[in-house]
Design a protein that fits this description.
Distance between the termini: 35 Å
Helix content: 25-40%
Largest sheet: 5 strands, mixed
Shape: globular
Number of helices: 4
Bound molecules: tetrahydrodeoxyuridine
Number of strands: 5
């Protein structure tokens, strides 16, 4: 699947965002090895710290639907700001846990898509090999 196509699905997911406090809506789309795509959106809470970002929602939803982390291939993140929103530290740590180090991550908005990977987003990561 082309990155533009995956980003379009992330944009669709943005519409599901529950962000009444920040009004900052983010969508994510996780491509799996069988070609399916799982969507995620940010979900906020009146207790602000409980907010779940779009990226984590997508990864957690894929596990909940029976996929294994080994099935996780690429993750697209869509927001409407310019430059587009880069994943937060918590989401990067979860990517380290659940995606391959060379797993592609696309960060986009309506005008641009940048391409990176998990290890570039999270160098010197603390991971299960550290334990
Ligand atoms: N957010 C995401 O969902 N993903 C990101 O990459 C950056 C931030 C959400 C969290 C919160 O609901 C809102 O954007 C503002 O921080």
């Amino acid at each position: 699947m082309k990155k533009e196509e995956l980003m379009k699905i992330a944009k669709e997911a943005q519409e599901s965002a529950y962000a009444p406090y920040s009004n900052f809506k983010v969508g994510a789309a996780l491509l799996l090895s069988d070609g399916n795509v799982i969507k995620g959106c940010n979900v906020e809470n009146a207790s602000y710290g409980l907010t779940n970002c779009a990226e984590r929602t997508a990864m957690f939803a894929a596990l909940a639907q029976g996929y294994k982390k080994e099935d996780f291939r690429e993750l697209a993140i869509f927001s409407s700001c310019n430059p587009p929103a880069s994943p937060c530290g918590a989401c990067r740590q979860v990517m380290v846990e659940l995606m391959a180090k060379d797993g592609k991550v696309y960060i986009g908005n309506d005008h641009e898509i940048s391409e990176t990977n998990v290890s570039s987003l999270m160098p010197f990561a603390f991971d299960k090999e550290s334990l």
